[in-house]
Amino acid sequence: MGYDSTCSMDGIGTVLIKMFDRRVRELKDLRCVPQIKKKLNSVGDLKAHGLEFTGTYGVFKVLKGL
Prior knowledge:
Layout: E1 11-18, E2 24-32, H1 43-48, E3 51-56, E4 59-64
Antiparallel strand pairs: 1-2, 3-4
């Protein structure tokens, strides 16, 4: 899949993710696109759900409720 190509979306759903500290987080309204091999989350979509981001020394952190 390259630039300027299109693909279909199967739907929108909720995903549960187990974090390194064994807590379970819920991500809502994620889009399912079967043609994409890697799992991607849009930073814009996460920001719309009230999450904040920081990044230093190659580490990207997602925070809620700063």
